[in-house]
Amino acid sequence: MISVHNVTYRYAESRVPALSDVTFEVTAGEICGFLAPNGGGKTTLFKILATMLPVQQGRLQYNGEDYQNNFKAIRNTIGVVFQNPSIDKKLTVRENLHCQVYIYGSTPSRESERINELVQLFDLSKYLDQKLETLSGGYQRRVELAKCMLHNPAVILLDEPSTGLDIVSRRDLWRYLKTIRDQRNVTVLVTTHIIDEAEQCDRVIILNEGELVVSGAPSVLKDEIGSEILSLKSEKIASVLSLLQEKWNIEGVQVDGTVRVELQGNRKFINQLLTDHLDIIDSATISKPSLADVFFNHTGNKFDELKEQEQT
Question: What is the 3-state secondary structure (H, E, C) of the chain?
Fold first, then answer.
């Protein structure tokens, strides 16, 4: 459905490109997540996909049509939810939806069936005549999703959609995204810096410093790493690294104040390690690989999902 070929984008004031030779494809009816830390390039890519920025270099196609030559027609088939709310909090839910209908050149009376359908889908019936400022962040996000779907888009672009939401609202948001994918075959493209969200996608594309690191189904990407990750906290990192190498021929990697070891099924040494060397080890945890481990495996850098939202 969407094909991106060798796309590069550089802001005028920057020597380093925000995106560099990025290539991928998104198929119809999937939730595709773009995972990147601060400055990774996901917001720039989002703006290009949303036709807000031009394709400076490379090629971008939508159902075989070139973005540059058909951006107006393509824009009409895309729904967008920005990171910063685009709703009027002084208006009611009903008024926000009606305003959106007028923007697309129609009227509420002509679109009443569509409005009612979306109100039911996002469970907004009880709140139609309440001002947005009186609703929770989760319900405000529902209104934004309903707004972006009023013109029946084939693709929805969501830029950090769970910003400011609590855990319950975030879970509800992802339930609705999966519903519109399953029931309406809508293609959802979502940018995020939250590992747990990316792992709910059908496919994830990981970016770092403007480059595409790796892409694929989250489960496949995690399986490629190995079975488990051992994390050893210590104030004597060098001693732990030397011990692992000299005694068990195991190469650990330092990540901040932690030694990280990909076990690859080898756990026999752990009991002896913890029994004989507690003088240099503060704590140990074993976990299944996450997308943060995938990021580290491909870049050698720790993925910090708690950094501030990227601006480029």
Answer: CEEEEEEEECCCCCCCCCEEEEEEEECCCCEEEEECCCCCCHHHHHHHHCCCCCCCEEEEEECCEEHHHHHHHHHCCEEEECCCCCCCCCCEHHHHHHHHHHHCCCCCCCCHHHHHHHHHHCCCHHHCCCEHHHCCHHHHHHHHHHHHCCCCCCEEEEECCCCCCCHHHHHHHHHHHHHHHHHHCCEEEEEECCHHHHCCCCEEEEEECCEEEEEECHHHHHHCCCCCEEEEECCCHHHHHHHHHHHHCCCCEEECCEEEEECCCCCHHHHHHHHHCCCCCCEEEEECCCHHHHHHHHHCCCCCCCCCCCCC
> Rounded distance, CA 114 to CA 284, Å?
54
Reported as half-sphere exposure (CB side, CA atoms, 13 A), residue 80 has a value of 16
With a threshold of 0.85, does the pTM exceed it?
no
Q: What is the pLDDT of residues 86-114, one digit of tens each?
A: 899 999 999 999 999 998 889 999 999 99
Alpha-carbon distances of 31 from 159, 299, 305, rounded to whole Å: 13, 24, 20
Confidence at residue 305, expressed as pLDDT on a 0 to 100 scale: 58
- At 72 the pLDDT is 83
247 near 293, Cβ under 8 Å?
Answer: no
